[in-house]
Design a protein that fits this description.
The chain is built from three helices and 24 strands. With 529 residues, the chain is mostly beta strands.
Length: 529
């Protein structure tokens, strides 16, 4: 509950100005549901009551955009060996134009991540779900975008904080050794750039950018420090096409202390939450260092204001590097967004940057099993189709890593129909003082896909459908590839302030050993104030 206050505080801070805004819509609510769940692989049947409270809120003015969707759920066991429990699920994004050229942005998320990569896949937020840890993250900071004569000046600062609770049963053998498990981190990122667009001073555009990143993670007292300086040039070669090139210097260091080890076995000791105990007498050991030059080049294609493609190839971190992006806005409510990335970062940084990249206007669903703040978030505007954060949620490890992957989002809206699709793949190569000493492995990779549909069913009804699939693999001793999948459908009927919902779904996690497959149904009522 204490950590849940992080998200509640951000939600409250975002909604407080609503009292003075006539364009604000804030709907707190309470709900009660009856849930039946059957484990289909020889397990037991369960029933429980689910009590919930939350709020949905929006502010849309000329200078302010805020959206919050948050829910707290409490489960009360009735039949079967289901422990009582609670969960927090929510997302908040805010953007405030504080002054000309100055924007304040903030975000918060409460969702779930896998406790241990050797355990079950991450599927639904149901009562018997295993291998789930509650995650809370916030990010906030100002952005400056102004001009000095023919020059543009941009700068941004972002504060980030990410924390995990102790998690639930993981679903794998307790005899396996403990591995790296993320606890919490605090980060600061600062960057600034100055330059001129093509034609403003010269036929080509030139810019210079500098950046600093600092992060401290609690487990093993990990310190991450990055500083960089680069220059870029853009040369138009046609009305819609331009060549781009850039290069610079970067220094990255990652340091951490040793874990306390058992005198007899030499294995790292863990605390009551299963995390490594840090040896305070250990010196900070170098886990990774990059100190040198980098470069990249490519092409930009912008045939219209609604379409943009950029592809870059270069060398960084001592190896070839490929990045790119594509955006297409079909109309005000439909669009596509694709990104290819390659960076050295940490779990806390990836969660924070994924959160900061999400649109301020996002789709909320009536999914009672908590997919709302899960793998992919869908935007309400075709210009900001959304983003996927599942690449970070496959495994929560403290160790820094080189992360490479692709994310893609698409939304389509017409009348009372809204469709969305998100997918991606991610690979992480961990960076530790001794390869595999802290993480238990040197690499992992994941693939994920998610789709949803919202359809109007009469004037006061809505039908929703959610599909999800995931795959995870790595070289951690004792682990095997894990496949997760799920599907559910829900019908909601609105009767004024009262909404009635009926839902049915099936979810599964497959790996070597016993699979976990469950079917569930829910009848619930929500009253909005």
């Amino acid at each position: 509950m204490i950590r849940g206050a992080i998200v509640l505080a951000v939600c409250a801070a975002a909604i407080v100005p609503a009292a003075a805004q006539r364009r604000a819509t804030v709907t707190p609510y309470i709900e009660v549901s009856q849930v039946a769940l059957a484990e289909l692989n020889g397990g037991e049947s369960l029933t429980y009551t689910q009590l919930g409270a939350g709020l949905d809120g929006q502010i849309r003015t000329r200078r302010m955009q805020v959206q919050v969707s948050y829910q707290y759920q409490r489960r009360i066991a009735e039949k079967g060996s289901l422990p009582a429990g609670d969960s927090h699920t929510g997302l908040a994004r805010a953007q405030v134009n504080a002054a000309r050229g100055l924007t304040l942005e903030a975000g918060a998320i409460a969702t779930r991540t896998r406790t241990d990569p050797r355990g079950d896949a991450l599927t639904a937020n149901n009562g018997n779900a295993r291998n789930q840890s509650q995650l809370y993250a916030i990010t906030a900071g100002p952005k400056l975008d102004t001009r000095m004569g023919p020059l543009f000046v941009q700068a941004a600062y972002r504060f980030g904080f990410t924390t995990l609770d102790d998690g639930t049963a993981t679903g794998f053998a307790s005899t396996l050794p403990s591995i790296d498990r993320f606890s919490q981190s605090t980060s600061h990122a600062l960057n600034a750039s100055v330059g001129a667009k093509p034609g403003a001073v010269l036929p080509i555009g030139l810019s210079a950018t500098g950046g600093l990143v600092r992060e401290v993670a609690s487990q093993l007292d990990q310190h991450f420090a990055s500083s960089s300086l680069r220059g870029d040039a853009i040369a138009p070669i046609g009305r819609t096409v331009a060549l781009v090139a850039g290069g610079g210097y970067e220094r990255i260091t990652v340091e951490q202390r040793d874990p306390v080890r058992d005198i007899r076995t030499g294995l790292p000791l863990v605390d009551g939450a299963g995390r490594y105990m840090t040896d305070p007498a250990s010196p900070l050991r170098l886990a990774y260092r990059f100190d040198g030059l980098f470069w990249d080049g490519g092409v930009v294609w912008r045939p219209s204001r609604r379409t943009a493609l950029e592809i870059r190839i270069g060398r960084r971190y001592g190896a070839m590097r490929y990045t790119g992006s594509f955006t297409f806005q079909r109309n005000s409510g439909s669009g596509i967004q694709v990104a290819v990335y390659d960076t050295v970062e940490t779990y806390g940084q990836q969660v924070g940057s994924s959160l900061a990249a999400l649109p301020v206007g996002f789709v909320t669903t009536a999914d009672p099993f908590g997919v709302q703040a899960g793998a992919c978030i869908y935007g309400t505007s075709g210009a900001a189709a959304g983003g996927c954060v599942a690449g970070a949620f496959s495994s929560a490890a403290t160790a820094a890593y080189r992360g490479r992957g692709l994310t893609a989002n698409a939304v389509w809206s017409r009348g009372g129909t809204r469709l969305g699709f998100g997918a991606g793949l991610a690979r992480r190569d961990f960076l530790t003082p001794l390869s595999g000493a802290a993480t238990g492995g040197s690499w992992d990779e994941s693939l994920y896909a998610q789709a949803f549909a919202q359809l109007a069913a009469g004037r006061d009804g809505t039908v929703g459908l959610n599909l999800l699939a995931s795959y995870y693999d790595g070289d951690i001793p004792g682990s095997t590839a894990v496949v997760g999948w799920g599907a559910n459908t829900a019908y909601t009927r609105r009767l004024g302030a009262l909404a009635l919902t009926a839902t049915a779904g099936i979810y599964g996690s497959m790996r070597t050993g016993p699979d976990q497959t469950s079917a569930q149904a829910l009848l619930g009522a929500r009253y909005g104030f």
